[in-house]
Amino acid sequence: EVQLVESGGGLVQPGGSLRLSCAASGFTFSSYWMHWVRQAPGKGLVWVSRINSDGSGTNYADSVKGRFTISRDNAKNTLYLQMNSLRAEDTAVYYCAREFSSGSRYFDYWGQGTLVTVSS
Amino acid sequence: DIQMTQSPSSLSASVGDRVTITCRAGQSISTYLNWYKQKPGKAPKVLIYAASSLQSGVPSRFSGSASGTDFTLTISSLQPEDFATYYCQQSYNAPRTFGQGTKVEIK
């Protein structure tokens, strides 16, 4: 059974840092691109970042570029999101998602989400 | 970035109604268009991928279609479990942008 389990969320002050983790199981993690998507309270889904299967390629939303870093450890089947210089507007539930890619591309599995609250 | 414009932002409907949600892409995305359903406090789940392909396990009352840069999600007969928020997403390129969502509420 495919599982994605996020951790690392919590309350952090503006300007602070946090590292999110997404532990993957039930599939060959190293074969899939992975993404982070966030959702501010009461708002819609916003794509944050993606990393390719071997970690050599990454992309970021303009709103987080230069502050967030996505990475992965394929030996540990874990995806990470290092978040620095956090702002109040980064407050959201952060989801990791697996991208199925075989002709079409879509997020076929999602984690349960981890809440990040940026507040003083 | 490719902008995805979804409409309406919300709608009220009754059980058994036919419901249509539209998503327009800001440029050509071929059929790299996906639809997700999200219930409060839960992660999204994919319903339709590649504009019109039904994800395994999703009821056949859900369907998707495409015409140029316009995409449609149709629920043929709304069921109680379908009251949720629906999002379109383009997977043509990065960033994988989402529409703003359509909340389907009980009339």
Describe this structure in words.
- The complex is a heterodimer of chains A (120) and B (107).
- With 120 residues, chain A is an all-beta fold.
- Chain A has strands at 3-7, 10-12, 18-25, 33-39, 45-51, 58-60, 68-73, 78-83, 92-102, 104-110, 114-118.
- In chain A, a hairpin with a 6-residue loop joins strand 5 (45-51) and strand 6.
- The mean pLDDT of chain A is 97.
- Chain B has no helices and ten strands.
- In chain B, the strands form two sheets. Chain B has a six-stranded mixed β-sheet with strand order 2-10-9-4-5-6, with no helix packed on it. Chain B has a four-stranded antiparallel β-sheet with strand order 1-3-8-7, with no helix packed on it.
- Classes of the chains: A mainly beta (120), B mainly beta (107).
- Chain A binds chain B through residues 35, 37, 44-47, 50, 59, 61-62, 95, 99-100, 103-108, 110-113, and chain B through 1, 31-32, 34, 36, 38, 43-46, 49-50, 53, 55, 85, 87, 89, 91, 94-101.
> How many H/I helical runs of chain A?
0
Helix-strand topology string of chain A: EEEEEEEEEEE
Oligomer description: heterodimer
- Quote the average pLDDT of chain B: 97
Distance between the termini of chain A: 40 Å
Which spans of chain A have pLDDT < 50 for at least 5 consecutive residues? none
**How would you spell out the order of helices and strands of chain B?**
EEEEEEEEEE
Q: Proportion of β residues of chain B? A: over 45%
Average pLDDT reading of chain A: 97
Main pleated-sheet profile of chain B: 6 strands, mixed
- Specify the helix fraction band of chain A: under 10%
Low-confidence runs of chain B: none
Helix % of chain B is under 10%
Largest sheet of chain A: 7 strands, mixed
Shape of chain B: globular
Question: Which band does the percent of strand residues of chain A land in?
Answer: over 45%
Q: Give the largest interface.
A: A-B, 23 and 26 residues
Structural class of chain A: mainly beta
